[in-house]
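Note to self: the last two entries modelled the partners one at a time, which told us nothing about the interface. This time every component goes in together.
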Amino acid sequence: MAGDMSSSPLVVDAFQAEIGASEPWPVDVCLYQQYAAEQITFPDYAHCLSVKTFLYMCGLDFRVEQKTNAEEMSPSGKVPFIHVGAFLVSELDPIIAFVNARGFNLVSDMSDTERSEMRAYMSMIESILVNAELYLAWLDETVSTEITKPRYGCPYPWPLSWMLPLRKQKDVRARLSSNGWKDKTIEQVCEEVRTCCQALSERLDEQPYFFGDNPTELDALVFGHLYTLLTTSLPEGPFAEIVQKFPNLAAFCKRIDEKFFKQEEN
Amino acid sequence: MGTVYAKAPEPATVNNPPQEGPDDIDFEHIPVKVERVVVEGVGRTKDDVIIKEVRPLLKAETFQEMVQKSHEVKQRMEKLGLFKRVGIFIDTAKDSANKDSYEITFEVREFRPISGGMNTLIGNNDASLLFGVKLPNVLGRGEKVNGEYTHGTKQTRGYSVMMSKPLNANPEILLSGGIYQFHGSYPWSGYKETDRGLDIDLTFPSVLGMHSLRWDGVWRDLRSLSRTTSFAVREQAGHSLKSSLKHVFVRDMRDDGILPSSGSLLRLTQEYAGLGGNVEFSKQELELQFNKSLFWDTVVQLSLAGGVMRPLHKKDDIRINDRFFLGGPLTLRGFSLKGVGPHSDDHPAGNALGAEAYWMCAAHIYTPLPFRPGKGGFGDLFRTHFFVNGGNLGNINFNDLQGSLKDMGNDIRWACGWGIVLRMGRVARMELNYVVPMAVKQGDSVNPGLQFGIGLSFL
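The predicted structure of the combined assembly is written out below.
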């Protein structure tokens, strides 16, 4: 029964991964996200950029489909999600697992120690950068009123255009309240971001990628978030300055942008 | 002093002339003068409404007119929802010199200020429990406030608060409005939806029938029901805001709403969505029914229904939650609920996608149960029926109207069968039928053999 399957997504994921392994990468893979120019909020944009970078790094072809209702369409309620044949997979980690199951792997020649180190860095990004982005986008008074809420509500007619952003803000506030980020000041948040960048900068050092000469999913994740912080113009943008203070991270973003995105455009 | 529980007296006709004789009193010609009207037991009801209602009594000139008018006043006051019970006492005015003077006393019982209850509700193939709180006659002029919570079998949850008010103290003209929230799931289409809305409704009679004019502003949040929901339905997930004006006209000349034996029904519905919001379409629907009694309590019933909608702008699509669906045990029998018409084809049992036009018709022959057990009592709630029903659901291309109409006429689905109908109260019915689908199209979800249905709307 449909209802039973939806109640245990893990089983479905395992099932999808199993089936997926036997099929090649179809030609009509689609990545769904909100409209990049008018609608998407920058934390979501960072997630989408990470997934796109990861897929490009794997050398996989896909088409980006922009939908105003991408968030509601997604099986997990979060963007981005990819539509591969009969499967829908949302968010970076499940997408990585799905792509790996199809035989595309960026980290096949890494040792177990390196892999768990990479995982540790990835969860640091999740727990610091993602929360910092949400804090700035939704809890900072100026940014949320001037940028985030109008963008989030733009596809809808009044009064949904103000009700839906308020509802989303409430959800984000509840999430940040449960992990203790809600009561931080902007200075504390900046300090967290600085620590995170410091750690990343030290790991990267002068290498082209975080783990030597080949890209990994950590590179995709870091690029997605740092590039978004560097390029999003906000009325209050303390994060861009923080990232700029680490020249090797800024150079890393530029390098990946040129290698995987400028090429794609040509 | 006698109590007159007034009944409308039969008018004297040529065939039934008032009889002459010393014992017979010609009520029609007894002159009266209503000197005083007393209403006893009034609490929160406002004087101006009562005065307005009883005023015509003072103009009564004959005894018969007085009795008849008193009865009308009683009925109107009860219909307005002012009083629970109204008793009428007519007496001669005691302290009057004039012997034709009368005094009319209404003994009224008001409603308790608040009442509550729990009911079971039957929807179309769905049952739910309803908890309600009622404030009758809350402001003293027949205003009613009604709060409800429904909890249904198919994950349906609803809350509503409605207020209604008779306009101009006329019980037939009712203005009502309210707010509601409703959550339901639609497994045949693979989605669930939460509706939050406001509505305002004006119901009024005209010489032709009853009209209802309703504005509805509703925020609808549609989501996929499960991971197996087809992508065609998933694409429609999200928020929409519908602001629509709907006019329903009903001319019901039948002797009964559930198992009529004679009379006809005409129901016309027009809906225009697009007064703000982001849902824009216009929708027309028609329902016709004729009933004719034959010999031995056999009734023949012919019904026809149809509907068409179109988006206001050519390039727009109509959302799945506004489209028409067809099929089910009380409408197009022999097919699963909403089982006719376009389905998504990416699953073994695809999701019903609905369409922008439909028509269906049905012919029934109703007879009492064989050998008529329980005649005059319980048995009269049952009928057996033989039926043939058919119809089609499809999209109309307005650039090729003739071709589309031809398609709608060609791909007919039809089924025939036999079964038992049970009337449930005054609004719902239950059917157990044996159905043989005769014409089916690819993609339809068919239900041959025994089919059970329960619900409010049927054809």
